[in-house]
């Protein structure tokens, strides 16, 4: 794994953690932002031919508080 791939994987891991925190806190807007960030990072990986299978668990249903 090269430095770019390693950094990208770390950024995705951080975003997954903060997404989980936002979900637990019920912060809908932050849930949206972190989810979008994860999708963006996965898109970058795909454009660079990086296999991300196993990096992110399949999406879990999100409970909306509104």
Number of strands: 0
Q: What's the helical proportion of residues?
A: 55-70%
Structural class: mainly alpha
Strand content: under 5%
How widely separated are the two ends? 42 Å
Largest sheet: none
Count of runs of 4 or more consecutive helical residues = 2
Oligomer: single chain
Q: Determine Rg (CA atoms, Å).
A: 13 Å
Series of secondary-structure elements, N-terminal to C-terminal: HH
- Poorly predicted runs: 61-66
Provide the residue-averaged pLDDT.
87
| Overall geometric form | elongated
Q: Care to describe what's here?
A:
The protein has helices at residues 3-25, 28-47. 65% of the residues lie in helices and 0% in strands. It is built from 2 helices and no strands. The longest helix has 23 residues, at 3-25. With 66 residues, it is an all-alpha fold. Helix 1 runs antiparallel to helix 2. The chain has a domain at 3-47. The chain is elongated, with a radius of gyration of 13 Å.
């Amino acid at each position: 794994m090269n430095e770019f791939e390693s950094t990208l994987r770390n950024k995705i891991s951080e975003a997954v953690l903060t997404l989980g925190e936002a979900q637990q806190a019920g912060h809908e807007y932050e849930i949206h932002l972190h989810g979008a960030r994860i999708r963006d990072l996965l898109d970058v990986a795909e454009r660079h031919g990086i296999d991300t299978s196993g990096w992110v668990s399949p999406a879990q249903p999100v409970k909306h508080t509104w």
